[in-house]
Design a protein that fits this description.
It is a single chain. The longest helix is centred in the first third of the chain and has 31 residues. The protein has four domains: about 190 residues, no CATH class; about 170 residues, Rossmann fold, CATH 3.40.50.300; about 80 residues, no CATH class; about 150 residues, P-loop containing nucleotide triphosphate hydrolases (Rossmann fold). The protein is α/β, with parallel strands linked by helices and about 725 residues long. It has 25 helices and 21 strands. α1 runs antiparallel to α2, α5 packs across α6 and α22 runs antiparallel to α25. Strands 1, 2, 3, 4, 5, 6 and 7 form a seven-stranded mixed beta sheet that branches. The two termini are about 40 Å apart. It binds adenosine-5'-triphosphate. This is DNA helicase UvrD.
Length: about 725
């Protein structure tokens, strides 16, 4: 065995040297070509291509590949070693095989989909299905041009049993820094299926905490760009994430995968960029204060304004409202540019309702008014004298202006206010009453009270953008080739249906976890609410049940919270990576800060790169942060106000920890004084516990919530 390993090691070392020599030579040749700085367009394009290649080769020269797959295609019989890297490198001069295959290439899919066994393996190539035998699957770690580690996860000719997950477990056991990383070398088969799914589908993915949803979505974008080069461009792809700090946290994956220019945004920022007018939203912290900080949080129901505003029923109502406005758009009068000349309302109506009916309302108004102007100009030409023409022109211009002012103004916010019976009603009140009647009275009352004070919330944005879209011509440059929605359980059906208007071919990747649906006041409760928005043949659903982030002990502990507290039938399957038991540590209110400081210091002694203290509320995080820093500890507060993610050692309320991960986590106040015995708080705690990679400690008072097991390790941390 040792001998086999030694010879494999020598073989790979030799291969690495050969590859590096070739990559260096190719790079060298390119660097010899002087950089073109002239104005010839063809030359500029060629130079851009060379520059791209220089960058790619420079990357390859550090770490050319991470895997090897030996495959013999049916018919050819020849076993070919394929080296798989983050970027492909062309053929060497002595060998006609590509030197390194891009991980996104069809043949590289074998590296991910093949999980062992004697049977034939297959992959979809542009020429059709290719079948053959896999002989070897090897993970290769190269750092800064040095061969560091080899791990065979399959060897057809070996008699030794191979532990498939050994390399994965090694990778998962590493400590994390402050940014999410790529996983190209260890993508798992169930993740690969999502990454390589066809473009024009609305994919809905339910993935347990830590199943790699965010990571997979980013890899999928890189794949789509490679596979559909002719149809998609990076600038026309977007990933929506919950907040700017999270966007910062995930910001390095795409550049690591060699992909730039993909838009990354929150829904609110995108929506505001579409609406021309400056809309000031009330801060998210105020919404969080209402839903997470108060002990008397209200129950969520279909009459909760945010849920109503996110429903497809409301979307239809917005449409009906705009259609009703159309009926009363044309002023109830003829137009007379000067005494004696009349353009009848019937004629104007005919232009509006027939000739220009295909234009959206605001455009139609523009067209009709421009047509009236042309009508006036034609009449002016027939004036009997120049003096009369001038006089008429002056009069006409005043009357056109005043007639134009009689038309309603189509400004989304003003109209949205009218939709809730607020502000100046420009449509026919009798007709609009049919819309107001469809809004439950308490919602109409509370929303209109807010709108009167110009208090606009995130949840108002889908309707505002929809009104804008219905009023104006869709700007083609705003269309996306593909949209990723991360943490989609917090999006409403209205959000997604609206985005669908902006996406070619319903090309979506929608990922989330219902068990982490802590924003129940606005999100979905079942994925059908999303998938039913698309034709059945256009959607696909993938569950991800394996969790890669945390140790087995942490996942098993978190599963109990789900089973007892959330009861939605979704639990996570751990990768076999064992760590320390979860610790339950009792702590009374009087000694709390000192005890937390002590435990936190014990964790720091273990040299973790990222740790977090997760409190139940922001107020507690702020108070504890003050006490800990006063005691001289170096820990920073995450309060939702910052756009950058610092990593390191943090204290934050549990609801702001969603999407993030830390080597070790202390969750404080896990008792019935802070976590209620309901599924909402069980989800909150589930989110908190599943942030931990290697260690999880829970501090609690007297009474544990029903969904927390006391069976975890009771021993005090030493
Ligand atoms: N195939 C894999 N190989 C190595 N690491 C992986 C793999 N899949 C996921 N991971 C790691 O698991 C962790 C969780 O990934 P990610 O944050 O993408 O999951 P998620 O499903 O979005 O999590 P959550 O919903 O809990 O926020 C990350 O550290 C990621 O690098």
């Amino acid at each position: 065995m040792e001998k086999d390993f030694q010879s494999a090691y020598q073989e790979e070392k030799h291969k690495l040297q050969h590859t590096l020599d070739e990559v260096d030579a190719q790079l060298n040749r390119l660097q010899q070509i002087p950089v073109y700085t002239g104005h010839d367009f063809t030359e500029q394009v060629l130079e851009a291509g060379r520059e791209e290649q220089r960058k790619t080769l420079a990357k390859s020269a550090r770490e050319p590949y991470f895997g090897r797959l030996d495959f013999a295609e049916n018919g050819s019989g020849e076993r070919q070693p394929l080296y798989i890297g983050k970027v492909g490198v062309g053929k060497s001069e002595i060998d006609d095989q590509p030197l390194v295959v891009d991980w996104r290439a069809p043949v590289a899919s074998l590296f991910y989909s093949f999980t062992g066994g004697e049977e034939m393996a297959e992959y979809e190539s542009p020429e059709g299905l290719i079948e053959g035998l896999v002989y070897l699957k090897r993970n290769i770690v190269i750092r800064q041009r040095l061969l560091e580690r080899l791990a065979d996860t399959y060897d057809r000719e070996s008699t030794e049993p191979v532990v498939t997950d050994e390399f994965l477990v090694y990778r998962l056991g590493e400590n994390k820094d402050n940014k999410l990383r790529d996983i190209v070398s260890t993508i798992q088969a169930e993740q690969d299926r999502i990454i390589r799914a066809v473009k024009n589908t609305a994919l809905v993915i339910q993935g347990v905490a830590g199943s790699g949803k965010t990571t997979v979505a980013l890899h999928r974008l890189a794949f789509l760009l490679y596979q559909y080069q002719e149809q998609v461009s990076a600038e026309k792809m977007i990933i929506f994430a919950p907040n700017n700090m999270f966007l910062d946290y995930i910001s390095e994956v795409l550049p690591e995968l060699g992909v730039g220019d993909i838009q990354q945004s929150t829904f609110a920022d995108w929506a505001q960029s579409i609406l021309d007018s400056d809309i000031r939203l009330i801060p998210a912290s105020e919404t969080y204060e209402y839903w997470f900080e108060s002990p008397d949080r209200p129950e969520v129901s279909e009459e909760t304004p945010s849920r109503f505003k996110g429903s497809i029923g409301f979307m239809k109502l917005v449409r009906e409202f705009v259609e009703r406005l159309e009926r009363t758009a044309v002023p109830e009068m003829d137009f007379s540019p000067w005494d004696g000349a009349v353009l009848s309302r019937d004629e104007i109506m005919d232009w509006f309702s027939n000739e220009y009916r295909h234009y959206p309302l605001a455009k139609r108004k523009e067209r009709v008014i421009a047509r009236i102007h042309r009508w006036v100009e034609m009449r002016l030409k027939k004036a009997p004298s120049e003096a009369i023409r001038k006089e008429r022109k002056k009069k006409a211009s005043q009357r056109e202006k005043s007639y134009g002012n009689k038309w309603p103004k189509y400004e989304p916010l003003a109209l949205y206010k009218q939709l809730f019976k607020t502000g100046k009603i420009t449509g026919d009140a009798e007709s609009l009453a049919a819309v107001w009647e469809q809004i439950p009275a308490p919602i109409l009352k509370s929303v209109s009270a807010e709108l009167k004070k110009d208090r606009i919330r995130d949840e108002d944005l889908p309707a505002l953008v929809y009104i804008h879209t219905l009023l104006n011509e869709m700007d083609g440059s705003r269309r996306f080739d593909h949209v990723v929605i991360d943490e989609a359980q917090d999006f409403s059906p209205f959000h997604v249906a609206l985005l669908d208007l902006y996406v070619r071919g319903s090309s979506f990747t929608i990922l989330g976890d219902l068990s982490q649906g802590i924003h129940a006041y606005r999100g979905v409760q079942a994925w059908e609410e999303m998938s039913s928005l698309f034709p059945e043949e256009n959607t696909d659903y993938f569950p991800l049940t394996r969790s890669y982030r945390s140790t087995m002990e942490i996942i098993e502990f978190a599963n109990i919270i789900l089973e007892r507290g959330v009861r939605n039938g979704i639990t996570a399957v751990p990768v076999f990576r064992s760590g320390d038991p979860v610790r339950m540590l009792e702590c009374t209110p009087d000694n709390r800060p000192a005890v937390i400081a002590d435990y936190w210091q014990q964790l720091q002694a273990k040299d973790y790169r990222t740790t977090a203290i997760l409190t139940r509320t922001l107020h507690e995080a702020q108070a504890l942060h003050e006490q800990l820093t006063a005691a001289g500890l170096d820990i920073h507060l995450i309060d939702g106000g910052k756009a950058a993610y610092q990593g390191g050692h943090s204290i934050l309320p549990v609801y702001l920890s969603k999407g993030l991960e830390f080597d070790a986590v202390i969750v404080t106040d896990v008792d019935t004084d802070h976590y209620r015995n309901d599924s909402w708080d069980a989800k909150l705690l589930y989110v908190g516990c599943t942030r931990a990679l290697h260690e999880l400690w829970l501090l609690h008072g007297e009474q544990l919530p029903e969904y927390v097991t006391a069976e975890a390790d009771q021993s005090a941390a030493q």
